[in-house]
Design goal:
Blueprint: H1 3-13, H2 32-46, H3 49-62, H4 73-97, H5 107-110, H6 135-160, H7 167-170, H8 172-196, H9 212-219, H10 240-246, H11 252-256, H12 263-280, H13 291-299, H14 311-314, H15 323-326, H16 337-350
Helix pairs in contact: 3-12, 4-6, 4-12, 6-12, 8-12
Amino acid sequence: YGAANVAGIRAMARGAHSVPRGVFIDDTAWPGWARAAANVLVWCHVGHALDFAVALLSYVLLYSGGDGAAPSVAAVVAFDVAVPALLYATAHELAYVRPFLYDRRNAFVARKYNPVNQYTDVTGRVLRLRSPNGQLQREVRHTMQGLLVAAAFHVVLSRTVPLDHAAWRRRPLHFVATLAFTTYVREAHFYVVHRLMHPWFKTSSPYRRYDLGRWLYVHVHKLHHLSVNPGPWSGLSMHIGEHLLYYTCALWPLLVGGVYHPLAYLYTLYHATIAPIGGHDGRDFPHGASAFHYLHHAKYECNYGVPLVPFDRLFGTHRDFEPADKHRPQPPREQPQQQQQQRRRHDADDTH
């Protein structure tokens, strides 16, 4: 989420039929190569301005001494749980709790990839922390667990990474390059870890019984995929084992070596914590507009990464969003009955 999303939501609430995809620059009329270049070099960073703003706020509040002392554990946990949780709750409020902002033109359904509102009750209401099917309670519970894991990584990194609080002044090019590198390493890491937790071999393969990815999916990653019809709180709704794998992205300063400004790992942590909000809200622009990852939740064996890092195209798992995908019928429950039965049989096979 960023300035363009907020501006778009406000415009829609005031009755606008369409909103530009940029606050200052609308690149929809640019040639394809120009849009691609801008995305790889500029927009991929601008699109995570909120993540960086939270990282900067964390640094100002928790590292204000600038003397190299690590922040207290209590302060880190308080900030790393409260601030992201507020952002998740705000996204849920805007995307699901207050659909009346859009109902004048039925735009809520029109801009939702799956037209079923997975959080509504029989009266049409959407609550903030509870849904009749239990999906929202599960997602909130596991997201809060994930925020605690992120805080633990923050505490460890603040005490192990060699820090230089004046790096932005003494080595400005290194400082900027480090922050830019964060975006690419985070997205590449996400693909690798995510792909690791899906089956590596086909069901008919003789190596199926040795498939670590299948085991990780059944025992770890399947929890995340219970959110077939995802919302903002789905992003970090994971098994604790997946949380531990997911946040290893912030360890890259230790692997590369050298001395870093704290923002090097703070930006990585908050990038990993906040980006899943827009990636899972299930809504088209002006919300998260992540049809790419929505398809992964709907189809499972495609779109393991993000478009910025073209691993899915390289390995043949890329799938474009099509109009038929938007109107794929699903009952208002966490998983269609047929998928539930298929998964029970699948899980039973994997226990042998």
